[in-house]
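Obj: model holo form, ligand = NAP.
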Amino acid sequence: MRPVSTHEQYEGRVAVVTGASRGLGAGLAARFAERGVRLGLCARRQPDPPPAADPDAVVTAAVDVADPDAVERFAATVAERLGPIDLWVNNAGVLEPIVPLRDAEPAALEAHVRTNVLGVLYGSRVYARHVRAHPGRGGVLVNVSSGAATSAYAGWSAYCASKAAVDQLTRVVAVEEADAGLRAYAVAPGVVDTDMQAAIRATTPDVFPAVERFRRMAETGAFNEPDWVADHLLALAWDPGAAPPDVVWRVPDQPR
Ligand code: NAP
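Output (holo C-alpha cells):
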C-alpha cells in the first residue's frame, strides 16, 4: 500500500494520538495537523500542540494510559470539544526493562505491562464504546505494534510479549466491533529515530546482544520518518481501497 491521497478526505476529521509528547506520537500529530486533522493529544507530560495546528482544533492533556478513568475522561473531553472521534491511535509505549528476564525487577515488568498492554486495552475499550455511542459513523483504531511482536530479541522479553499482546488484542477488537463499523489494526511502524531508539543504542551487548544492528541503522540513517508513518496511517484510515488486507500490518520501509 502506498499513500495515494489528495488529502481532502482528511480535512476536519478528528484523531486521538496517545504518547504524543515526543517521538513517533509527536511526529504523527504534526503531520496530521498539516493535513487538517483535528487532534486530541495526550501523554503523561501534556503534549505541545503541533505548530501547524489551529489552536481551536487541538485538545491536549496529561494522561497516563494505564489509568482507565483518565483515558475515559480524555476521550469524553475530546469528543465534547471536537466532535466524534474518527481515528484513535494507541501509540504510547515503553521499551524498558532492557535486560535478560532473569535479571528484571518485578516492579519494572509490571510498569511495562501497565503501559504497553493495559494502556492499549483501556484505549481500545474506550474507543470501541465511543464508536458504539455514535451509531452509523464507524471509526478506525490503530494500535502501534512492533516487529518485536513476532521476533524474539534477547533482552526485550517484556516488550516482545507486550507487542504480541497488542497484535492479538487488536485481532479480537476487529472481530468484536466489525458490526459497529470499527476497523482495527495493529501497525508496526518500522524503525523510527526517537528517544526509544536512542535508549536502544545506549545499551550494551551483555543486556541487549542485537545492539550493534541498531547502531548501524543510525549510521546509515535507515529509519522511517514519522511523516512517512503518518501518511500511511492516514491512507489506511481514509483513502478508498488503501486498507491493509490483514489486521496486523507493517509500514513499509521508506525508500532512500
Ligand atoms: P518514545 O520516543 O519513547 O515516546 C513514547 C511516548 O509515549 C512519549 O510521548 C511518552 O510520553 C508516551 N508514554 C509512555 N508511557 C506512557 C503512559 N503510561 N501514558 C501516556 N503516555 C505514555 O517512543 P517512540 O519510539 O516514539 O514509540 C512510540 C510507539 O512506537 C511505541 O508504542 C513503540 O513501542 C512503537 N515503536 C517504535 C519503534 C521505533 O523504532 N521508535 C519501532 C516499533 C514500534 P510521556 O513520557 O510524556 O508519557
